[in-house]
């Protein structure tokens, strides 16, 4: 499916997200907080749009994706970017290889998100960070109704104008509706071997950012590069992560 949407993926994304995708990506990069010299995996990287900004502070970044079509489109556009083919369910990386792993709009697309999270945990070093950026449904009922109306009505119409494979976007609407709520996803992340799981709504909950720390390490930097904290208390809120943040 992603091979078919690859040629116009980035443009379609921006159109369907009504331009909000830039702010979602900026929030994800801030949550990862990749420092110079750190090793960072952007899983389900697609064309590398989510990968590039992770490296601006000097981190060593690699994007990994299952779709050769998406990777080819990414390589054409960003020849200097390190993009590798790989399956989230059987990653081609050693145990504990990364200081941070992030996945944007990709976990929902894997055939087995629980298995993918277990693989992510395997390649994240103890004490390393995980940031999951994923579509969700707004919690506030009136906005939720409006958004679900957009998903089922306007989004398919817009995708017919913008996408190289509009039918793929019918799947997008359905998969967002079927995606687990924030608490369930947090519990699944915790079950995969992460602690200090926190989440934050973006754009009223159209997108939710989950972050966590790989269990087994010494408490140190959290997923936002904030101060030390234990895994049982609410982490200090860094800039931009304030009252809508919940922890589990
Ligand atoms: C919606 S795109 C997101 C791309 C990019 N992260 C972004 O934010 O623009 C979802 C990506 O997940 C990839 N994907 C789906 N299943 C995968 C798997 N099992 N392993 C790796 N990538 C996968 C698809 O090929 C696709 O490129």
Total domain units: 1
Cofactors, ions, other ligands: S-adenosylmethionine
Assigned CATH superfamily: Vaccinia Virus protein VP39
Q: Enumerate the strands of the largest sheet in spatial order, edge to edge or round the barrel.
A: 3-2-1-4-5-7-6-8
Shape: globular
Q: Any idea what the CATH architecture is?
A: 3-Layer(aba) Sandwich
Largest sheet: 8 strands, mixed
Tell me roughly what share of residues is in helical segments: 25-40%
Number of strands: 8
CATH topology-level fold name = Rossmann fold
CATH class call: Alpha Beta
- Overall mean pLDDT stands at 83
Order of helical and strand elements: HHHEEHEEHEHHHHEEE
Share of residues in strands: 15-25%
Query: Could you name the ranges where pLDDT drops below 50 across 5 or more consecutive residues?
Result: 218-248
Description of the structure:
With 248 residues, the protein is of the alpha/beta class. The protein has one domain (2-140, 170-217): Rossmann fold (3-Layer(aba) Sandwich). It is 35% helix and 21% strand. It has helices spanning 2-5, 9-16, 21-32, 68-77, 113-123, 141-152, 154-162, 167-178, 182-191, and strands at 39-43, 60-65, 83-85, 98-104, 124-135, 194-202, 207-214, 246-247. It has an eight-stranded mixed beta sheet with strand order 3-2-1-4-5-7-6-8, with helices on both faces. Bound molecules: S-adenosylmethionine. The site of S-adenosylmethionine (SAM) has 18 residues, from loops.
């Amino acid at each position: 499916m992603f091979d078919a949407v690859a040629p116009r993926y980035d443009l379609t994304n921006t159109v369907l997200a009504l331009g909000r995708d830039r702010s979602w990506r900026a929030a994800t990069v801030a949550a990862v907080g990749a420092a110079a010299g750190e090793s960072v995996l952007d899983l389900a990287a697609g064309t590398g749009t989510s990968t590039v900004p992770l490296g601006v502070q000097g981190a060593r970044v690699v994007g990994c994706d299952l779709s050769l079509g998406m990777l080819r489109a990414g390589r054409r556009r960003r020849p200097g970017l390190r993009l590798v083919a790989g399956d989230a369910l059987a990653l081609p990386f050693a145990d504990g290889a990364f200081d941070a792993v992030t996945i944007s709009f990709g976990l929902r697309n894997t055939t087995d998100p629980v298995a993918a999270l277990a693989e992510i945990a395997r390649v994240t070093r103890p004490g390393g960070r995980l940031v999951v950026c994923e579509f969700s449904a707004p919690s506030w009922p009136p906005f939720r109704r409006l958004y679900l109306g957009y998903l089922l009505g306007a989004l398919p119409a817009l995708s017919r104008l913008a996408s190289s494979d509009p039918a793929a976007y019918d799947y997008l609407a359905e998969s967002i509706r079927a995606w687990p709520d924030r608490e369930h996803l947090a519990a699944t992340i915790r079950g995969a071997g992460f602690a200090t799981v926190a989440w934050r709504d973006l754009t009223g909950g159209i997108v939710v950012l989950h972050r966590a720390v790989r269990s087994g390490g010494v408490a140190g930097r959290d997923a936002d590069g904030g101060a030390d904290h234990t895994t049982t208390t609410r982490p200090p809120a860094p800039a931009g992560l304030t009252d809508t943040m919940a922890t589990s």
